[in-house]
Amino acid sequence: MRRKRVGCLSQGEDGQSLLETAIAMPLLLGISFNIINLGHIWFMVLTLSAAPRLGAEYASQGGQAVQTISAPTTTAVKNLVYDNLTNAINGATTSNAAVQVCTSAKGVSGTGSSTHAQCDQFGPAFSFSAASPDPEAPVFVLHRVDVGYTVTPVIPGSAFNVILPANLNFHRQVSMRSLF
Question: Which residue, of 48, 53, 94, 138, has the greatest Cβ tally within 10 A?
Answer without folding.
Answer: 48
